[in-house]
Design a protein that fits this description.
The protein is an alpha/beta fold. About 30% of the residues lie in helices and about 25% in strands. Strand 4, helix 8 and strand 5 form a beta-alpha-beta unit. The structure holds ligand UGB. The site of ligand UGB has 23 residues, from strand 12.
Length: about 625
């Protein structure tokens, strides 16, 4: 039987009889332990965890395993702000609240907040983009990539997935190239100041760390200086087996505590404990930008939203898009407490509906007359100002308000179906901020800013009608749509899309247009690289891989791929007409093709294309 929460507390002394009575099996193994391990044992016993030693045999049996147990305990203790004692204490409180059915938003009334709404390409958007580019040299980027993506059901790490299959560029490469393009553009705008290397941090976990490191190393960091990149690994947290927060013994090894991921909120304590924030602050950096593993569009939104942060002096700026009711993204909500306190915060997708119902909105999470939820959707890209961030983390140690989500066996809520653990989310950072903090958000069009790859084909095909699929299929098609619409904004005649069904999901198929971030990172960049009268037919593919390619009087009906070294200036024009790349459907159950292809449900048959590579400096005219 598991011991009770009060076991061993206060009356514990190392040499006394109390020790023997609370954990006799541990006591008999005491000679194996170092003084530090004895201290850890004390922490566990004081926190009512003597059951962990119940199955321990006499010394001489499994001694190395026993020591390894304490290595694990040391790690669990040191990687959690406040240590294991604090973890267990918080767990007991949260589990009691959960059992009592306490609403975490008790006393708060939700309402729709107001933020900065941007329209792509208009005057203020362009101004914000320019301000953002100026600031980029004072920014550090943090990618949270510790999640395995269970919803996607993909076996690899998500950042290794192709961002689109026209060029085959993976997400990580795309992110790195985007940061490098921002770095270059920012340094160019502030000539006279010394060049900078924008720091790029990746939060990994045991599930993703070695594969992420390998991906970087085997690709020469995709062109970034290795010194610019740093991996911070988050640790898992201990699982809890009951309402008394007894730690769960690993079912496969009685000398291990079962662990599970703690959530993306770990990024704050990791950044704090790494010391990086202070180094950045001292070096004059002003912003930290957080982003997730598979949003192929996010860098289209970053320059303008960073400009918003700088212009509005936001301490925290959350990026948002119009949200469909019940979509699996949190809603940015203004919460007003009975006592007058207010905060603008993400309410997670599974909590928004109950919160609305509990506060008089009997329909819960529904769309309004616009066809969208009135609450902007959180896309978990956060821009945080470093100075106030450090001040706050000095108070909290980077700890983020946690939650627990036990699955109970029955309505008595006395036992769990399986062990649970505390979790935390990075967007909950503002919850501990004082009311004086300047917390805002920036809303952009979905087509421009948000196309995550999260759902497997089967689940994606079942989302409520009209809601986004968030699949590999929709993620890739959204990239073509965004590039097509951006080209339309600068006057290119781009044909309308057709509708096609892949893996049970009906999507718009636009011309497959992609470009490298160094070709254009802002609207003004695109404008400066397009002149004359250009047109692209729906069945076309166009990949621009060089920095100085100008589209001038181009009429494309087929496939065009242009690659050029930085000091080659290429004018791409004339009428290009070939058989192009044909889209073929692939069933996600077809095991004869690779997983990356299966999950998107299509592949390209590269029948014919015009491919031009310029590998020397000079001025060139691409004529078919
Ligand atoms: N992640 C970690 O790095 N470590 C972890 O322990 C867990 C995750 P999911 P989620 O924009 O679409 C979030 O699982 O958590 C990384 C927001 O909470 O993809 O269901 C992981 O690698 C939600 O409000 O998403 O939902 C990935 O990069 C909404 O904004 C990231 O954290 C939603 O994302 C997110 O993990 C969204």
């Amino acid at each position: 039987m598991a011991s009770t929460a009060a076991d061993g507390i206060s009356k514990l002394s190392i040499n006394g009889d109390e020790w023997a009575s609370s954990a006799p099996n541990l006591r008999s193994n005491l000679s194996l332990l170092s003084p530090q391990q004895v201290e850890l044992a004390k922490i566990l016993l004081e926190a009512g965890q003597s059951h962990l030693f119940q199955q321990w045999p006499q010394p001489g049996v499994d001694d190395n395993e026993k020591r390894a147990f304490f290595d694990q305990v040391a790690k669990l203790n040191s990687s959690y702000p406040g240590g294991l004692a604090s973890y267990i204490k918080t767990a007991r409180e949260l589990l009691a609240d959960s059992k009592a059915g306490k609403n975490p938003y008790d006393g708060f009334t939700p309402s729709v907040p107001s933020g900065e709404n941007l329209t792509y390409g208009d005057e203020s958007f362009v101004k914000f983009e320019e301000a953002g580019i100026r600031e980029a040299r004072k920014a550090a980027f943090v990618l949270v990539a510790g999640g395995l993506g269970e919803r996607l059901g993909y076996n690899g790490i998500k950042v290794a997935l192709p961002h689109e299959t026209t060029t085959g560029t993976c997400f990580l490469q795309h992110y790195i190239e985007s940061v490098l393009a921002l770095q270059e553009a920012s340094c160019k705008l502030s000539q006279g100041e010394s060049p900078v290397d924008i720091p790029f941090i990746i939060m990994t976990s045991d599930d993703t760390h070695s594969r992420t490191a390998e991906l970087l190393e085997s690709n020469a960091y995709f062109g970034m200086k290795p010194t610019q990149v740093k991996l911070l690994k988050q640790e898992k947290v201990a699982c809890l087996e009951d309402n008394d927060a007894h730690l769960a013994v690993d079912p496969h090894n009685k000398y291990r505590i079962q662990t599970k991921p703690h959530g993306h909120g770990d990024v704050h304590s990791l950044l704090y404990s790494s010391g990086l924030l202070k180094v950045w602050h001292a070096a004059g950096l002003r912003w930290v930008l957080f982003f997730q593993d598979t949003n192929g569009l996010l860098f289209k939104a970053i320059p303008a939203s960073l400009g918003v942060s700088a212009t509005k002096q936001y301490n925290v700026n959350s990026l948002a898009v119009p949200r469909k009711a019940k979509e699996a993204i949190g809603g940015i909500t203004k919460l007003t407490h009975k006592d007058g306190r207010t905060m603008v915060i993400n309410v997670e997708y599974n909590q928004l509906d109950p919160l609305l119902r509990a506060s008089g909105h009997s329909d819960g999470d529904v769309n309004c007359e616009t066809g969208y939820s009135p609450f902007p959707g959180n896309i978990n890209q956060l821009i945080i100002e470093i100075g106030p961030y450090i001040e706050e983390l000095q108070k909290t140690g980077g700890a983020i308000k946690e939650f627990v989500n036990p699955k109970y066996k029955d309505a008595t809520k006395t036992a769990f179906k399986s062990s649970t653990r505390l979790e935390c989310m990075m967007q909950d950072y503002p919850k501990t901020l004082p009311p004086s903090a300047n917390v805002g958000f920036t809303v952009m069009d979905v087509w421009l800013a948000y196309a995550p790859v999260k759902n497997n084909p089967e689940d994606a095909s079942k989302v409520p009608e009209g809601n986004p699929y968030h699949s590999a299929t929709s993620g890739e098609m959204a990239i073509y749509k965004a590039h097509s619409l951006i080209l339309r904004k600068v006057g290119v005649k781009v044909d309308d899309p057709i509708h096609q069904v892949f893996n049970g999901q009906e999507v718009e198929v636009w011309p497959r247009v992609v470009w490298k971030p160094k070709w254009a990172i802002t609207f003004s960049d695109v404008k400066s690289k397009v002149s004359g009268s250009n047109s692209i037919s729906q069945r076309s593919t166009m990949a621009l891989k060089g920095r100085n390619i100008i589209l001038e009087d181009l009429s494309l009906d087929g496939a065009l791929v242009v690659d050029a070294v930085d000091n080659a200036k290429v004018k791409a024009g004339g009428s290009i007409d070939n058989k192009g790349w044909v889209i073929e459907t692939v069933d996600y159950k077809d095991s004869s093709v690779g997983e990356e292809v299966r999950i998107r449900g299509f592949r390209f048959n590269k029948v014919e294309q015009l491919e031009k590579i310029y590998d020397e400096a000079g001025e060139f005219c691409l004529n078919p």
